[in-house]
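PROTEIN DATA CARD
Card holder: M55 family metallopeptidase
Chain length: 268
Origin: Paenibacillus baimaensis
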Amino acid sequence: MKWMIRVDMEGLTGVVNMKQVVPGAEDYGFGLQMLKHDLAAVLEGLLQAEEDEVWLYDIHFYGTNVDLFQLDPRVTAICGKPHYGPENLAYLDGSFDGMILLGLHAKASMPGALLNHNYEHDIIRMSVNGVVVGEIGLEALMAGEAGVPLVMVTADSEGVKETEALLPGTITVSVKQSFGDTAAACYPPSRTAALLKAGAMECATAAKRLTPYTIAGPIELDMQFKPGALLDKLRVRLAAAFIEADRMVLTGDTVLEAWNQYLIAKSD
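Structure generated from the sequence above:
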């Protein structure tokens, strides 16, 4: 089978603050260690047959967090965060059996969630045609437009709750119990490795029963921002999209088309 794994870091085993996941920060090495651990467990569960194949897309910071030396030859990693766009369908197509979100976190509006945000911490709220989403929902929608179901999410307890409310039936693995923005009851790696591998081993069966998550177009992607440099930049580059001083609505035939406008506009 063929899988896409989107790799993030805030929802990894043992991670509770941004110093552990920001490149160059004092505890970033710990975050990388946990990424190796969680990813290895999921890959062990997915790669059950010689013909199985996994593509990774590193969505965290600069997209350069994955240790290529640890990867099985059946794995390919997309590094550097190339833009999702209509021309590449977010690097997904009908050849993929399913998508896994590894190390994700809850949306910015989720109360009591650990390290919750929406891509940039400047984004207060996102919705698609009135459905409030975070990274989990938006990634699931863009995968759905490529015909690929979201099969599994690994996260903290609140990221798991968000997934189960939005997409019932998706496999979820909680690697820690959130106690708020920067605290959690963390499970030891020996425990989460078993949970992650077991979840990944269920993916082959789950992919056959799950359907891609889609919302019929035309699409309105509604985004609200904190004051700051990102908002200032967008108000210049996407002036026509703003309906309030801190809020814009991007439109398109697909979620991916609308999101791509934002990615281009925010780039330096």
